[in-house]
Amino acid sequence: MAEINRKFYRSWRGPGPADQDHWSLVFDPDTRRLRVRHEWQTCRHDGFDDLELAEFLKQTGAAQTALIDSLFLVARRMAAWRYPVCRTEFMPGSGE
How many domains does the chain have? Predict the structure, then answer.
């Protein structure tokens, strides 16, 4: 089965407009593991590194912060979908 790849951060390393870094969260269904892929491209070379998720989360920087923010956003959306907030309206005699 094919890997599932979700980009979560991009930055420009310059000086050229195509000189970029991309970070993706990658799920491998065969091994059932998550990892972070850092891809870079410049006018002279390109490449990528795969990092274990725990290793990446130990780092600091904008890419790590973006991943954490993305994960919490997904968690909040899942919780809202699964456990919708119950709203009650004031009812006379309810003690409110």
Answer: 1
